[in-house]
Amino acid sequence: MTSTAEQVDRLAAWEAREPGLHRMLPYVGLAVGILLATVAPVPVGLSVVPDPVVAGLAAAWIAWFVNLHPGWTSRRRLMGIYYTGLIGFAALLVLDSPWYGFFAWVGFLHAFLVLHGRWRFVGVAATGVLIGTAQGGGLPSSAGHWMLWAVLVLFNVGVASGVSWFGMITDRQNANRKRLVEELAEANRRLAETMRENEGLHAQLLTQAREAGVTDERQRMAREIHDTLAQGLTGIITQLEAAGQARDRRADWQRHVDTAVALARESLTEARRSVRAVRPEALEAARLPEALAELTRRWSTINEVNTEVNVTGEARPLHPEVEVTLLRTAQEALANVARHAKASRVGLTLSYMGDVVTLDVRDDGVGFPVTDPPSPRRSDGGYGLTAMRQRVAGVGGELAIESEPGGGTAVSASVPAHAGGVG
């Protein structure tokens, strides 16, 4: 298929050659007329000025107005003077010899070259009269000749006017077609530029998506490391410190050491599962309420703090990510109680309420001002609360913390109850 640019180039090339043909044909018509008038002279010609003189003046007239000054074709009044002179020279030549009808025929072409609007039909009509006269062998000399002349003139004027009319329509269509082709070429150019811009934007979006994915994965690994390795190591350190203090009591020492070993193995298992982005083992083997009850029971045994777990509403499977979020939130809240609260009682409540599930963890510990920033002396540097907020916000939930010095702490996580299956 021919491209739009090639169509534009071909149309422009033809339009560039067309004026050259119009400027050359008058001289060909003059040459043919002079040749035929010389070898086959017509005795009835009306000679006012010798043919070669008129032909020379006509050639000079055309050369001055058209060939030497091509820019003048856009000046309507000046071209009206030129076309009048062209018809005058053609009339003198045709009246002298009908053979100069070959030259007069150029009037049809130049009517479209230099005239505009309705003046083209005036020029075509004048040329038709000259062509009819040439075809009739000169000026009529009898009634029959006059009738023949009238028929020839009417025929030439009619045909030329019809051709001129269709020519004007064709010119308009060509102009519209050229404009449409140019607009299409411009649209294609803009489309190509837009596609190049889109390619750059696509590459930029891919880079941003890759960077966002790396950031999300880093945040996920940071949370998982905090929830597994950091908490596990904290528990191990606590148990080893307790074992060191119970060296004189063999049974207590062994219990703390065994607990530390179990915590180490559990932390290692959870760390491996985190790297593979697998759900916590507690949720693989049980539903969320049972997993929270087991987590609280083990935490209570290790930290020797009384706990109570309650489930309200009808328990149902949730989306895996929601269950992981609630389990990790409970795990972090209990870890904070063990490290900072010095509590004697802890209560955990899981509430299924229509389209929302709420987890509440309360303790009767020392509390803290919730408006204060995390203390840099804390072992987790305050990342625990940040991790909880990120996890809960990641599933479209909200985390609220209520606490005051000496009044204990309450952590509440509310998340959408997206349906899902248990693993």
From TrEMBL:
Reactions catalysed, as given in the entry: ATP + protein L-histidine = ADP + protein N-phospho-L-histidine
InterPro entries cross-referenced by the UniProt entry: HATPase_C_sf (IPR036890), HATPase_dom (IPR003594), His_kinase_dom (IPR005467), Sensor_HK_TwoCompSys (IPR050482), Sig_transdc_His_kin-like_C (IPR004358), Sig_transdc_His_kin_sub3_dim/P (IPR011712), Sig_transdc_His_kinase_ChrS (IPR017205)
Record-linked PANTHER family: NITRATE/NITRITE SENSOR PROTEIN NARX-RELATED, SENSORY TRANSDUCTION HISTIDINE KINASE
Full protein name: Oxygen sensor histidine kinase NreB
Enzyme Commission number(s) of this protein: 2.7.13.3
Superkingdom to which the source organism belongs: Bacteria
Single GO term (MF): phosphorelay sensor kinase activity
Cofactor(s) named in the record: [4Fe-4S] cluster
A cellular component term, taken from the record's GO annotations: cytoplasm
Coiled-coil portions: 170-204
Keywords assigned: 4Fe-4S, Coiled coil, Cytoplasm, Iron, Iron-sulfur, Kinase, Membrane, Metal-binding, Transferase, Transmembrane, Transmembrane helix, Two-component regulatory system
Residues passing through the membrane, by range: 24-42, 48-66, 78-93, 99-115, 122-140, 146-169
Pfam family, one: HisKA_3
Places the protein is found: Cytoplasm
Signal peptide positions (record): none
Location of the Histidine kinase domain: 326-419
Source organism (scientific name): Micromonospora echinaurantiaca
Stretches the record annotates as Disordered: 403-423
Keyword Disulfide bond applies: no
Function: Member of the two-component regulatory system NreB/NreC involved in the control of dissimilatory nitrate/nitrite reduction in response to oxygen. NreB functions as a direct oxygen sensor histidine kinase which is autophosphorylated, in the absence of oxygen, probably at the conserved histidine residue, and transfers its phosphate group probably to a conserved aspartate residue of NreC. NreB/NreC activates the expression of the nitrate (narGHJI) and nitrite (nir) reductase operons, as well as the putative nitrate transporter gene narT.
PROSITE patterns: HIS_KIN
Keyword check for 4Fe-4S: yes
